[in-house]
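Bench notes, bay 3.
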Amino acid sequence: MMKVFSLDKLKNPLSSFWVLQLIGWTLYGVLIYITFLTVVPPSGRFALLQVKISRTVAGFLLTSLMRLIYKHAGSARSVPAIALLIVITSFAFGSLWPFGEETGLWLMNRGRFSIDWTRYPVEVLDYSFTLIGWSALYFGIKYWRQWQSEHERTLQAEALANHAQLDMLRYQLNPHFLFNALNSIRASIDEDSQRAKRMVTEFSEFLRYSLLNDNSALVELRQEIEAIKNYLAIEKIRFEDKLDVTYDFEPAAEKCQLPGFLIHPLVENAVKHGMTNNSGPLKICIAARMRDGRLVVEIANTGRLDTRPQTNGGGTHIGLRNVRERLAKLYPHKSSFSLRQDGAWIRATIEMEV
């Protein structure tokens, strides 16, 4: 898997903030102290150190409080809104900075608490621009980290798609299904040539979609359903009255996009395992609808859910794990998958934002 450059400590938002906060304000204090050393006589350097320490500590505390405001108001999405928030907050806290600085000096010297009101407007302006710079750096690092996270997640999703390529090909060209379909076509050639022709047509359409579709690309649900219909049409010819399939799609849902072959493993499992644990005909219902801006796709089949652990690494668990992993990587926190027993039906449900 391709690695993304990142500082280890920047992966933890809490620890990275305090590390950078301490380092940044320490450098700030050192620089402003060194800058004024050339204009202060040796006898006044200790007093200068106290002033700069007090100023630095006040800035550290005020920006720590500003961070709480920025985190609370972090849902602002537009750049102008962020810029306005930075200016207002910086000037508000910039007006408090001189009081914080004087409080620090009073605590160190226990002297008279005093504010030089003639210089107060100049100090507020100076401190406010310092806080604007800190705020710009804060949001810059924040959005850089978010970009890094999204970029790393994208690379992980691509790596997962590449790693799952063989599994996906097995889903698309399941050997068991492939051999059964070819044998059924062979047996039908002499018995029912029209039936054999239909199976070849459905089989070729299914293969076309399987081989040409990029499993990492998005396709319309309508296209996915057409491939599933081709697959089920072949199974219907094989099993005849033992398989009963119904479809229930909302027109708006059919236009939604989703990763190719996301649903097919669930349909294949419904046929494969439904046939083995059904005493009567296997009923399958595939439905898709919109609910509160989310696409909901459900594959339901009659039968009993097999909850026994599988030690051979195959069967339903591979298909379910693949679906869960693809949803988690491609739609983090924006999708869900569930498999449950509902009376005489087993229901596999995918929900995702579209």
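Next record in the batch:
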Amino acid sequence: MPDERICAREGCENPVSRKQSNAIFCSPWCANKAANDRRYQRPESLTPEPPPPSDLLFGRREKADLFHVEDVQEGEFAIYWADSHIPFVDWPLMGAIGKVIHDFQPRREFEVGDIQDCYDLSRFDKNPTRLTDLTDEGRQTVTLIDHHKSLAPDMEQYFDPGNHGDRLQSWLCRNAGSLYGLKDVDTGEPILSIPSLLKLKERGVHYYPFTSRLDYQGFIITHGPKRGGGGKLCAKWMGDYIRSSGVCFHFHRNQSYSWIGDRGQPQTFYAVGPTCTLDPDYLPFPDWHQGFGYSRVINGKVHFQHVHVFDRRFTVEGKVYKY
């Protein structure tokens, strides 16, 4: 007569061996597993409640996210620049970039982080003889944004605060937590924040938080990582991290890294240099190189062109600019 006894461990349907008449488990492994299940089983009354969704853990949090550029048109021209670090911006270079905006009338301008330096909020040693403050930085920043808009009135502008703009949130968290969540009584918007202080919403500027990614027809635009970055091989590091064609700034170096994607498609990630001066007071001989970028949409794809600035001149679509 066949032995129809089944293993006593919950979920196991193996038969128990005939050789052991008093056995209730099919194997020593199942016996040990059942014992462990009993040992670590918690009474239902002691089972903790599931945590609330992460979005409900904080009253205010700037969450990095993936944003999409809408209404992309074939052939549209876009310009990219960052790391002006106002007031350390190279104004003659920005004047030349302004000429590009005037000549080509971009449909979009991507201001990809560290437009203002937020020098006073830095954790690092600061020169006490500096003659400008946060108000001066903000005034120069909006003057530059407004000037570019006046050169191309139909241009949409996108603003990333970068890690330097993020210094405001970090400083408030460390030194003035009670003020961090201060909001406008009418609008409910945070008062002490970069978009509020620069009045970006009123200016019609699209804002996306630091470390966010902007998806422009599959071409990823981001300032850079919060931490890390692969040292001098920053374009390769970012390409391996993002795993998509795209562009970053932050590292103050001009680089590109290309590879073949998992579907055989060519991919390239660019790291683009700054538009600030190359003589900061805290770094005597910086390994930096100025640059910016532009692109056109061709057959639905973003074709990015990396512009290297040499000897106070550069070329955009065959036209030479000097300053």
